[in-house]
Amino acid sequence: NSKEVSQELEYRDQLTTLIQKLSINLRERKGIMALNILPLVDSQKYYDVAEIIDYVDFVTISAFDFYNPSRNPKEADFMSPTKPLQNNNDRLPLTSIKELYKDWHSQNVPRHKIVVGIAAFGRAWKMSKKSNNNGKPPVKHTDGPAAGGPQTNMPGLLSWPEICEKLKHDSKLTRVTDTKAKSGIYAFRPADSRGNFGIWISYEDPISVAAKVEYIRNHNLGGIGLFDISLDDMHGQCNGEKFPILRTIQFRLSRDLS
Predict the structure, then answer these.
(1) Assuming Cys at both sites, which of 42, 62, 130, 223 could form a disulfide with 117, CB separation 3.0 to 4.6 Å?
(2) Longest dimension (CA), the chain
C-alpha cells in the first residue's frame, strides 16, 4: 500500500544520506567506501543507485546463497550459478553472476566498481525418500538443512575442507561436475529405504572458482571478494595445499589476459 511504499522510500533516502556522509568522511581520511549487497536484495527497491554510485568506490554483489536450506527447506538448488539457469516458474530471478552484474551495470554502475562475492563453502540439504534420486536440481521434497560439519558445526553449511573430506570418504556420494561452467557443481546421496542418510550439496571448489574468476576477468569487472577466508582450507587438510580457493583466485587474477 501507499504507506509501505512511502516508508520504503524514507528508509532508502536515509540510507543514501548515510552512505554519502560516510563516504565524504572516509575520503577526507583517504579511506575507501565499499558497499556489500546481500543475496536476493532488490537493488532498485533498497538503493538509490544514481545518488550513491559517485560516493562508492566498490559495490560487492554477493553472488551466492540464492538458495539455502534455511530459507528453502523443501527444495534444494544451485546456490551460486555463474549464468542464468534454465528458466522455469520455480526459480527466482537475479540468481547468477551474469544477471546480478548486468542489473547493476544497467543502472550506470561502471564495471570496474563491481566486485563479485564468491563462496568458500557449500549448502547442504537432507534428501528424503520423496526426493528425486537422480539428484538433478531443483530437488523437491528435501527435509531442511543437513547436519553441520565437524569444524563449522552449523546445520546446512559445510566449509570447503569439510566437503572435500566428504567427497573422499563418504560412501555412495556422487559428484556432478559443471562442464559448461554455468550452474555450479553438486554432490548427493539419495536417502535409504528408511529415509535416512540422504544429502544434497551445492558448493564451490578450486576448479569451479577458477571458472568464475575467468568469467569475471573476461567481463572486466572490478574484482572478487571471498566469503570467507575462514571457510577455505586454511590447514591444507584436503590435499596439503593451504588456502586453495584463495590461491586459485590470486593466481587466475594475476595471469596475463593475453
Answers:
(1) 62
(2) 65
